[in-house]
Amino acid sequence: MVAFQKFDQERIVIIGSCGAGKSTLARNLGQRLNLSVIHLDAYYWQSGWQETDQNKWQKIQQELIEANSWIIDGNYYNTTDIRLTAADTIIWLDFNRYLCLWRVIKRYLEYPDKVRPDMAVGCPERLNWEFLQYVWNFPKLHRHKIMNKLAEYQDSKQIIILQNPNQVFNLLEQVTNNFNKLI
After folding, report:
1. Which end of the chain is less crowded, N or C, counting CB atoms within 10 A of the terminal residue's CB?
2. Which CATH superfamily is domain 11-174 in?
3. pTM of this prediction?
């Protein structure tokens, strides 16, 4: 894990598989660093799980990154450069598939047919075989693409790779301790 090198980070992107905890980490970091949190799912999905047109989606993200400070969680690989280019720090939750699967099942049980706080209105939590397969195959299908993408930004961005919940906890503790020293 790479520690935060400085705490004046104002633009943080969090990526990772469904169920890795992107939204939870974003909320926790947002509270600790006093930064606004943007959950991409809430902007991408329209009521009834309808996808946003790609041109409109790119425009939405361009508008979102114009703010001076933020934490953005979500993948959407086709538009990832929009966010990564604007970010100071990129956090990748590179968790194993078993944990991610457990968490999406647990999330479904917590929000059955209800809309999560980080999701778009009209998109109740759902769980189906296709989604479970997506989570299971995420490391195989996307890990190498993410690694290659992060390599493109390694010289200009602070990149933090977390591989388990303990590392997330340690990062949050470090952020809290260092942020409190600044007050």
Report:
1. C
2. P-loop containing nucleotide triphosphate hydrolases (3.40.50.300)
3. 0.92
